[in-house]
Amino acid sequence: MADAKAANEDAFAKLCSKTSTDYPFTIRRKPAPKVNTTKISVLWPVLLSTLLALPSLVYAIIIALWRYATHSARTETCEFAHADTPRNRLLVARLRKALAAQPPPTNWCAHSGDLGTLVPFATFGEGAPVNWRRRWLRVARAPAPDGVDGHKRRGGKEDDEAVALDVALPDQPRDDAPVILVLHGLNGGSDEPYVRDLAQAAHERGSVCACLVARGLMATPVRASLFHGGRTSDVGAAVGLLKACFGDRVALIGISMGGIVAANYAARSGSDSNLVACCAVSATLCSEIVLKPIGDRARRLWHPPLTLELKKTFLGGPNAPLLYEKCSINEIMATHTIAAFDSALVCPFNGYAAIDCEGGYYDDMSAAGRGDAAGFKRLANVHTPTFILHAKDDPIVPFASCLPEACQRAGHVVLLATESGGHAGWPRSRRPTDHRWGFMHGLCLDFVDGAFATKPFKVDSGEGPVFDADFQIRPAYRAASNRGPLRQGAVRRAAAKAAARGPSS
To the nearest 10°, the Cα dihedral for 190, 195, 201, 206? Predict the structure, then answer.
């Protein structure tokens, strides 16, 4: 254990040598008038949304109180969508076992996706204490040129920007545990309660945990570019750095907007992702579906307060002067939905023609593009074991945007759809505070462990057929691999046994 801890400290020292403790750039910016955030108000749309949703909210509260008083265990239906491959069957079997060990869903809010979303974020508090160590990771400012994958660094001092990479080391590290890179949700950061709880859960398994803070969030300074959902280059830079420091054991877990970026990164990078696993929680694979009538209720009830927080962050933060050059502040102030905010700020600031056109913002930020043939081809480019966790009653991101039929055709994607859970919620048992976000964190980490414990391989015996077991159990070979290359005979025998046992192994 001491050797593992020393190895992690050395790796972190190496990480620090590649970054800077302090923000590495000096920003000289012409003064710009400050936006009075006190005038940023969505009182009337929030009031209107509340009035429209009042009957359903009152009904939900009454049912919740009645079910709380007459509590009874509730079973939940979970559905999987995935290609029928040996590795997927192995991972699904592991997830089913993890599901069986989870407490039942909270009965008094399981009938309402609104309560499933609101209760966790309103009652779970600040989250577990995590000793984050911030370092600044230098990344490409501008998109990669044509012919270069977007996740790869463009290079050149003229393109330099910096993003915050918060790293936390476990007290009892394991050298055979994956390194977890977390992507937070919209307008979030490493101080979000669900991120802290995820870091703690990863530490209990001996994993190093890092959180990539999106450009401009958590009041972090930027030189010229702010975060948007289509930017995967920062993720690629963080993954590459963590791989260089901790080895080939980096896994990506994104929640909400972070899940959108994570799935998009896996699709765009393909076999060059440098990941052992990718998890996307409460994320859409086709963002344009949220613009369809199925998302009308979300736009009425949830978007106004979310848009308000975005306005306060971008118009009232230290990077507000950047927006005056390319965006209309009046148009941004007048928005009350995420789509309108993206049209008024994200598109003009980052050079997108629109949110809902071919090559537009939502096309660029989606792992499955616009959900057409080109989008399915992009999703099929995922070569990393990818886990999509979504609740059918998600009130913010419609389940239809996960494209279950496309997931069945994508060879390395496993979709788990739960009957209830809301948006990044999944409250469990009668007292959800006892389990917090343990449901989604546990499933994601179990999937990561399962993907890390397996590795595709192909062995030609030289005497007969080619064994293609599609996976190998890593622990069985770790000791031998540390001493040198595995003997082909041993690998052939292992492949034959794995093929004979099948997915139940």
Answer: -30
User: What values do phi and psi take at 105, rounded to 5?
Assistant: -65, 155
Residue-by-residue DSSP string for 284-326: -S-GGGGGSGGGHHHHHHTHHHHHHHHHHHHHHSTTGGGGGTT
Give the model's pLDDT for residue 323.
87
| Burial class of residue 361, CB neighbours in 10 A (0-12, 13-18, 19+) | buried
164 alpha carbon, distance to own chain's centre? 17
- Cα–Cα distance, 361 to 353 (Å, whole number): 8
Place of tokens 């919209």: 186
pTM for this entry: 0.86
Q: Which of the residue ranges 3-12, 140-149, 406-415 has the most confident prediction, judged by mean pLDDT?
A: 406-415
What would you report as the CA-atom Rg of the chain, rounded to the nearest whole angstrom?
23
Of 109, 60, 183, which is closest to residue 433 (Cα–Cα)?
109
From the CB of residue 152, how many other CB atoms can be counted at a distance below 10 Å?
A: 16
Strands 160-168 and 78-82 come out as unpaired
- Which domains are delineated in the chain? 2-35+73-452 (3.40.50.1820), 459-501 (no CATH)
Q: List CB contacts of 297: < 8 A, sequence separation 6 or more.
A: 53, 395
Angle, helix 488-501 to helix 474-483, in steps of 10 degrees: 180
- Helix H or strand E encompassing 78: strand 78-82
Mean per-residue pLDDT, 352-373: 93
Contact 467, 123 (CB under 8 A): no
